[in-house]
Amino acid sequence: MRATALFTALAAAALATASPRIAHLHYQPITPSTADAAAPLPLAEIHYDASTPSSATVASYEAPDLPADADRVRIGAWDAAAGAWRSGVSVTSAATFAKGYAPHLLLSVDASGTLLGAGARGVRIDAGATRDFGPQAVVAVGGAGETPVVNKPVVLVDGRKKEPEAEKTLLQKYWWVIAAVVLLTLTSGDK
């Protein structure tokens, strides 16, 4: 009995101190002639933990070498063995990596830490500020959204609740049928 309790406690402690995950981001320039698109190139390696998204760090970063005719860049996690993207891919402007901008690499992960998508945005560097101008990592952890409130009573402008209408009687509902039957009876011939 004590052995199972000890094993359970150790397993819970191991799960609580899960090691951070690593995301390898790649970029691919988009040129007007996309037929000769090259394989994506390494952009950054980001260490993150879904339980503490603010602790994400950029372990390595290689500034992209973009061709002159590339005005957009595709960013995501590339699987070289499969030759396909492993995550959702975003497209950003090539100006994101221009001089005067600090790239912020955005990761979208689920609650368990699985990488869902990646992107980048350029943040203009303020010349008067004294802060780190290098690439920054931003992790957005997805969760369950709000559920709608069903059967909520309607509230009028003056704060009163809308009163339900009174149920109509049989005569109020079907007076027109009775009138039609009477009209047909009176106008029909005696033949």
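^ that was protein a. below is b, sequence first then the tokens
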Amino acid sequence: DEVLELDPNSAESGSVVNTDGKVEDDTASAPDRLGSTDASGRDEPRQSLFSPGKWNRGRTSSGDHPQLVHQTSIREQFRISRQNSKQIVDRIKTDLNQQVDNLLSTEANTKKEFQELTNVFFESGEVNEEIKAELGPTYSRTEMVEVIRSAVEARNDDRLQFLSKFFKPGSVSKLMAESRARIVWVNDWYPLKDLIYAISVDDLQKRVMVVFRGAITTTDWKTTLQGRFQEIPNPIEDDYEGKNDILRVYSGFYKYLFRKRKDTGTTKYDEIANLVHKYGTDRIGPDYNLFVTGHSLGGALTHMFCFFASMDERFTKNGPVKAIAFASPYMGGHSWGDACRHQERTKKLQLVQCRNNNDAIPRIPLNFVIGRRGPLWRHVGIGVTLPRVPRFGFKWKPMVHYWGKENSCFDSTMHGYRRNIIFHVPWLRPWTIDRTHKLEELQDRLIYGELNSKPGGCFHLLESTLDELYEKLEENDFQTLSKTKWWGLHRRKGDEHQLNGGEESN
């Protein structure tokens, strides 16, 4: 508390003595504090405990003369504290507004800012007038903030579609801005104990997408490390070549998706499937299609979910269930592979796995044990392997292959050993294991391939649709072939794809 003492001998001069015995001149304030009348000459009421302050008689340590002591009340202390806090907040707001003003355009330099913005995003200023005409109405800074705020509050995303014109064609930002996909469900209620997924709906493409998150939590990693076989009943009712009543799948991933709740007895798969059908029917209608994707652990769950979804008529009546898994491990044995190929042949499933060539995760579990049909673990679907971005001008050539039924135990064994984890771990640079598994590395390699590939080259396969690739698979009877000539890109002797006039097609 602030304590001031008034010396009676110097009361006429208005000198104030503090507790240290020092005299301070307070001619203007002391009589006002001591005065018992206001400016009109009326008596002021007695001050209470919570009034701005009061004077009490006291003694100082320097003498025995009684002196008047001014004590700050609790209310006054609160007022001072609030005032100081308000000053701090106002100062922070002022600094923030100044920073925003420096970043955002004002009425005076709107044209200049627009010119600089279009030069950055469109690489040249030649199309500025055309872009400006396409943008339609222009907004000031205040109007733009109001448009965005009202669109967010009203959940009217269509009002923000014009923002896509500010990004380069083909960029991720432009694709996101142009996309009509809207997230309708995110399951993160128990992020430390449960798998995390999200559902989005694109009414323009008539697509419902399920996205699984990769391994982050301890539970995720425990699930990933449960790399043993689990035998489950074959859910396919149709008869097909090599059908087995028991499928051998990755134990951890299967349990993560199909363990039953104690209260309802339902599984996570049931929950996701019902939500997909609900949002697809409500937002799009009965003619929606299902697309599934994920990375690492999410890629493994993508394999598992899309396989069982391909047997649900709700998801296959309008076309096959389509899935792209990134950097997913092995998911099952040969019986699992036979079942997936049957779903592909019957046009109920289309599955692609994309990975980096030196990524160790798609090579786990260890695949050394040899069975009657070769190594026990087996990949399924179309595989896309991306080589490392070259630094010294080497040729960059991705590999697109399909894991079909093996021709013999020897071929299956050689195929499995070539893709064994022992030969794909960067032993000389072990610190790169984590980087080669990340999505950022996958994206860098895809972008490099797109920018540096020649017309009609190997990267042309990655620009094909899933329907086009599976048409080629059907033509080749879903055989295990990985040569680029199998996709019709290289010359083949006696090939029927030869052009008229003797020119050969590449």
